[in-house]
């Protein structure tokens, strides 16, 4: 009997070559994918020269010039001056100063903290300082930030910077803004760092946020609409970024497209419904009233701008041309009306009060809203609530037929009492003192509830605890 002396190889010895081949194939596939991705990236972002109509304005003009003469140099100087002037107008239209100025002695140097559900974002310095600002940014860097939400070093920007809307702004207008910012005094200032919780402090995650909440691309005029409508759409959807405040947000804090302009709460303030719904929105406002509100912050018998909207009027919309005001109104008239469930328009509540007579000779115990109103508010607004000065520019507004007082939530009224009003326009210098340091939460709640009950929507009430939360808002 012959003995079988052949060796039986272990299983792992048979499998190992196959596994090694698979690893090799996987590595080659990965390398090929990386090369393909780099080629695609280079095609999109490489150093190839863009078409003439996409070149930065100064470069396109220089490339087109041949044998420059003195007259042509003068023409270029005039064109540059016009570009800067246009950039200043557009910078105001975009209200860039509001977010990028925390200290008025350092305009556009950033440092403003913005509270979000994920932490605090601090706005950057956009002066032309070369180390702390954007002085070393190229035009291409600036365009990429505005249109794609990507910074100079390739970092993803957070959508507190509204690139979601700015992506629609034409290259020529972005470059005009850039030209104006280049003329600002450079301010050497590094704002504090963001304070975001993990994982929201990981900027690369914004790529996934963008997949659901951002569509990159420039505004395309609608040929079926008028030039005025298209101009309004370009401003509202783009540079003016009205949706950032007036559109509610989804669970990812992206804009809720199904409720555009239906109103939302920002830092305790309610940005109201501006759709043409006749009850919940501004559908029953006349065009001249909407234009007056945008240009002066006041529409007598309707509303008076305060808080963030007061700042928008003071810093931005008052400087827009009449053509742009009309264009914005024309566009807003066309958006779908959305009902907020209100029973009557915000500006159709209230009647004069007679409480001062009842208070005479009465012993007041506890916190009394009527007494606090007479003591703190009646000097300017009259104890009847009818205001002083009617519709004059410097009038103290009536609390009757006032959209802030007649709103379904009392947030804005309480915030005005806490923080006051400071709105300076060419129309008037409006000032209401802040009472937050003089009145406690119970007293502010008592005045708020008295005013809504007497002059506005009686169903709109607040508690002292709610006042405390509003007081803590930045």
TrEMBL record:
Chain residues that bind heme c 1: 96, 99-100
Keyword Acyltransferase included in the entry's annotation: no
The GO terms this record gives for MF are: electron transfer activity; heme binding; iron ion binding; oxidoreductase activity, acting on CH-OH group of donors
Which InterPro entries does this UniProt record tie to the protein?
Cyt_c-like_dom (IPR009056), Cyt_c-like_dom_sf (IPR036909), Cyt_C_IC (IPR008168), Cytochrome_c-type_DH (IPR051459), Membr-bd_ADH_cyt_c (IPR014353)
* Cited PROSITE patterns: CYTC
Essential cofactor(s): heme c
What range(s) does the Cytochrome c domain occupy? 82-185, 227-336, 364-455
Q: How is the cofactor bound?
A: Binds 3 heme c groups covalently per subunit.
An annotated GO cellular component of this protein is: plasma membrane
Asked whether the UniProt record includes Electron transport among its keywords, one would answer yes
Binding-site positions, heme c 2 = 242, 245-246
Q: What are the record keywords, sorted?
A: Cell membrane, Electron transport, Heme, Iron, Membrane, Metal-binding, Repeat, Signal, Transport
Binding of heme c 3 occurs at 377, 380-381
Compartments, record wording: Cell membrane
Q: Which Pfam families match?
A: Cytochrom_C
Protein name per the record? Fructose dehydrogenase cytochrome subunit
Native organism is Paraburkholderia ribeironis
Q: Which gene encodes it?
A: fdhC
């Amino acid at each position: 009997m012959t003995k079988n002396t052949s060796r039986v190889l272990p299983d792992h010895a048979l499998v190992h070559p196959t596994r090694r081949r698979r690893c090799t194939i996987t590595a080659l596939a990965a390398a090929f994918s990386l090369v393909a991705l780099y080629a695609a990236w280079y095609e999109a972002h490489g150093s190839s020269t863009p078409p003439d109509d996409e070149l930065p304005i100064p470069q396109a003009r220089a490339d087109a010039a041949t044998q420059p003469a003195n007259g042509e140099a003068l023409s270029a100087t005039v064109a540059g001056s016009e570009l800067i002037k246009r950039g200043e107008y557009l910078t105001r239209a975009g209200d860039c100063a509001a977010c990028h100025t925390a200290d008025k002695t350092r305009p556009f140097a950033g440092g403003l903290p913005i509270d979000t559900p994920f932490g605090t974002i601090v706005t950057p310095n956009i002066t032309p300082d070369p180390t702390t600002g954007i002085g070393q940014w190229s035009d291409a860097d600036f365009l990429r930030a505005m249109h794609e939400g990507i910074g100079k070093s390739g970092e993803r920007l957070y959508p507190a910077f509204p690139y979601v809307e700015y992506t629609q702004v034409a290259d020529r207008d972005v470059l005009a803004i850039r030209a104006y910012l280049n003329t600002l005094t450079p301010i050497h200032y590094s704002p504090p760092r963001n304070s975001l919780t993990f994982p929201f402090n990981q900027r690369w995650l914004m790529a996934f946020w963008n997949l659901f909440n951002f569509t990159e691309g420039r505004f395309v005029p609608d040929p079926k609409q008028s030039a005025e409508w298209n101009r309004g759409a370009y401003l509202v959807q783009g540079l003016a970024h009205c949706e950032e405040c007036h559109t509610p947000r989804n669970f990812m804090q992206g804009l809720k497209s199904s409720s555009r302009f239906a109103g939302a709460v920002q830092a305790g303030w309610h940005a109201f419904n501006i759709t043409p719904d006749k009850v919940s929105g501004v559908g029953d406002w006349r065009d001249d009233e909407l234009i007056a509100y945008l240009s002066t912050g006041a529409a007598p018998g309707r509303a008076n701008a305060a808080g963030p909207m007061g700042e928008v009027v003071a810093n931005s919309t008052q400087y827009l041309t009449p053509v742009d005001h009309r264009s914005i109104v024309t566009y807003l008239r066309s958006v779908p009306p959305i009902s907020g469930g209100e029973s009557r328009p915000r500006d159709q509540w209230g009647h004069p009060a007679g409480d001062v007579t009842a208070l005479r000779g009465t012993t007041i115990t506890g916190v009394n809203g009527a007494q606090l109103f007479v003591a703190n508010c009646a000097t300017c607004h009259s104890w009847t609530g009818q205001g002083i000065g009617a519709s004059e520019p410097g009038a103290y507004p009536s609390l009757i037929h006032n959209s802030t007082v007649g709103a379904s939530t009392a947030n804005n009224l309480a915030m005005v009492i806490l923080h006051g009003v400071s709105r300076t326009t060419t129309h008037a210098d409006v000032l209401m003192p802040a009472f937050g340091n003089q009145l406690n939460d119970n007293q502010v709640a008592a005045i708020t509830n008295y005013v809504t009950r007497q002059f506005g929507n009686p169903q709109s009430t607040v508690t002292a605890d709610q006042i405390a939360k509003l007081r803590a808002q930045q």
